[in-house]
Structure formats: structure tokens, C-alpha cells
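Lecture notes, unit on binding sites. The following record was shown on slide 14. It pairs a sequence with flavin-adenine dinucleotide.
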Amino acid sequence: MKSVIIVGGGLVGALQACFMAKRGFRVDVYEMRQDIRDMEVVRGRSINLALSTRGREALRRVGLEDIVISTGIPMYARMIHDLDGTRRPIPYGKADQFIMSVDRRHLNELLLTQAEKLPNVEMHFEHKIVACDFNAGRITFSKSDGSHVTAHADLVVGCDGAFSGVRQQMMKKTLFDYEQVFIPHGYMELCMEPAPGDKFAMEVNYLHIWARDEFMMIALPNQDKTYTCTLFMPFDIFKTLDTPEAVLAFFRDKFPDSLPLLGEKYVTETVSTSKALPLISVKCSPYHVKDRAVIMGDAAHAMVPFYGQGMNCGFEDCVVFDDILSKHNNDIAATLKEFTEVRSVDAKAMCDLAFYNYIEMRQSVNSRLFLLRKKLDNFLYWLFPNMWMPLYTSVSFSRTRYHQCIANKEWQDRLIRRALYMSVPAMAALGYCVATRTRLLDAPVSETIQQLVERLRPTWI
Ligand code: FAD
């Protein structure tokens, strides 16, 4: 039986353990933290996550989709909170299309337990990777008591997150491209308690957004009827909110309708004393070393969280990897090579899309032109469901390859631009015909219009 070491027992590592073990590999998972199932409080990133089609497909394949869906909360639309308190929904897709708010800790625990149910999986908590010799298949871990252990395997899978130790070891090799960006915006989480009567404080099946052009706050519902609100903002603005008075003035000015729901005391104390956390985007290539090691999830492609795709993309890595293994009959060398070729193109595209969606969420949703375009996209999607898939739909509700989602959006934009160009001379020509027919225009004026039409006509028509 071939052996695999998975470094990182987070969302992607625990899922990959399920996939590899189901294929009959001997799997050892080494995780830096203690077992989160025994912890009272788990520190780390966002409390809840938006799960969509790609992530669901992965969970379905390991038999966890139903349980995750039954414990999540569907969100059918964005709910935009305008400055004057008006709330307006913008649906994500068709009436039956939704993303799911799921609890990160619960999901990670489910995945760890599912992996452990398989007899060929063993978990090793409080093991931090310190060195790798890929050629020898040897990895050294430090334990919490300061001692070191060495483990061997045929394949090392690095699922150890954005600051991956496995990736650092791979970077020592030549011809490894790496790009990392910290954006000038950070994030801070706030908790909105249930309203009196143990009810949700806002409409429940929505992802709430307070879009304020330069920054935004969002809120996702939790099973316990709380909302996790996340404030995304330039660090320069966070720095100015260092006293309760400054925070209060800021929230009264920018998010007035959220204040009574969050509570003035809670908001002012939390924001003025907490530190905003950074957001990183990582692109790299290749994802593998010969037939010895591969990285997946945030280790390979950490992205800013604005499309809600980081975990979904990481989960899809496991599906794509599994499909390629099947195609190559479990041949590791061929699989790793193809995995890099296929996946790095798509993950890079997704990293770009994630940046783009920050602008859409914090700014574009306030623009009439954007809303008009959304309506047009939805109409064309309804008219030509196999031809015209809006960008958000293809990213969140399909498994269209990410780079193809961008290519689709580009040709749609081109087509709409051309239609608009063509409509200008067409309208002018129409006006001209009507005017001359009804003899409203005298000859010189009609000639001028004719010249105008000629000038406006794009060369390619
Ligand atoms: P991680 O979750 O980071 O897990 C890595 C694991 O490796 C951890 O358990 C860690 O302890 C362990 N580890 C690290 N270093 C070592 C080491 N040296 N040795 C051993 N173990 C190690 N994604 C979505 O799809 N939808 C969302 O709505 C969404 N919202 C987000 C909101 C925010 C604010 C942020 C920051 C991210 C969000 N994401 C979202 C992205 C998502 O959190 C990540 O993409 C996802 O957690 C990646 O999973 P992973 O297993 O690759 O990495």
C-alpha cells in the first residue's frame, strides 16, 4: 500500500485525507494545532464560510454533503443596506440557487471525524513541519514538548495553509514561481446577537452587505441565530478608530442601521481595542515536486475572501486531483504533473476574480449601470441558459473551470459593447429615416445626419 503524509488537518487537509484513504492509500495527517474537537475556543479565521457548488461536490463525494447542508443556512441573495437604512436584495442567481453559510469549526470537525472513520488514516496533532527531504520522502516535525519526530512516505501533500511550510521547502528548488500580495485592507469580525425572542436580528436567508465604496461590512447568519459581521477596510481607516468615541462617530456616519443591532457598547469597545487582520493572496507554480510532493488549498493559492471561493476552490482541488488519479490509474508522477498544469491556471484565475469581486461588493452594487447589467445578464441567461451564464453563476453555481469563467465574461462584455456601438448608428439611422419620410428635415440637415451616421459607424461593421 502506498503511503501519504498530509501536512495540515484544516479544511482541505482533512478532506484530502478522506479522498486518499478511500482510494486505498495509507494516510497520516500531521497537524500543528491540537485537535480542535477537544478545544473550547478555536482561534483563527472567519467563523462562518459561504459554501457553494464546487465545495458541495467535494463533500458529496466523501458522503458529507447532506449533513453539512442540513446544518447550514441558505443565502439566496445579497441584502444591500443603503446609508439611509433602505434594504434591497440582489439575487445570486435563479430562485433555487443559493450559497450556504456554514460553521468553519463544525465543518472541520466533521471532516476530521469522517477521515478518522477510515481504518487506513491516522491523525497526529501538535506536529509542526520543520524540514522536508522530498527525494527521500522524509519529513521532520517538531512536537509541542520541543522534541522532533521523522516520518517517511511515498507522497507528501501540503495542505498547511497560506503560510505553508511545505511550500517554503518547495521554494528552495529552482524554477519555482511565487507571488504574494498583502492588500492594504484588513478585516475585523463582530458578532450580532439574536434579537429579543431569540430571533435573527435581520432577514435570515441573505448575505447582508453595507457597501460604502472604499470599504464594506458584511454579515452571514449562524445556526444559533447570531450573525458574524466582518468589517473590511483600509488599515489606515482602522488606525483612526482607536477610541470608543471615534468608533461611535464612524458607525453612526457609515453603518447607522447596524448600531442598534450590534449594540453601541459592544461595537465601540470591540473595534477600538481589536486588531484588524491582514488579507493575503498567493500565486505560485508548479504545485508539485516530481512524484514526491504536491500542495493544495491555500498552500497553493491563498486568495482574498471576497468571492467566498477560497475553501470551495481548495475542496475542488481534491476533486480534480481525485479525477486525475483515476485517469492515470493512481500513477502519482503523471497525476502531479497534470494537476499542476490544470489547476494552477484555474487557481490563478480565481485569485484574480477574488480581487475583482471586492470592487463589485463594496462599490458596484451601488451603481445603477451595474444593476442594469445584472438584469440584462439574468434575462439573457433565462433566454439562452446554455450560452449566456453570468459570471457569478458560473463561479458559484457551476464547475466551469475558473479561467473559462473569465473568458466567458470577456466575450459577453465584448458582445454587449458591440451591440451598444451598433445601436448608436442604428438609432441615428432610424431617426434619419423617420425624419426624411415624414419630411421633418430639410435636405442640408438630413445630409448632416447622414454624415454623422457614417462617422459613428465603427469600422468593423
Ligand atoms: P487552512 O484552513 O489554513 O488550514 C491549514 C491547516 O494547516 C491548519 O489547520 C493549520 O493549523 C495547519 N498548519 C499550518 N502550518 C502548519 C505546519 N507548519 N505544520 C503542520 N500543520 C500546519 N472560503 C470560502 O470558500 N468561503 C468563504 O466564505 C470564505 N470566507 C473567508 C473569510 C475570511 C475572513 C478569510 C480570511 C477566508 C475565507 N475563506 C473563505 C477562505 C478559507 O478560509 C480558506 O480558503 C480555507 O480555510 C483554506 O483551507 P486550507 O485547509 O487550505 O487552509
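Take-home: Residues 391-460 form one domain.
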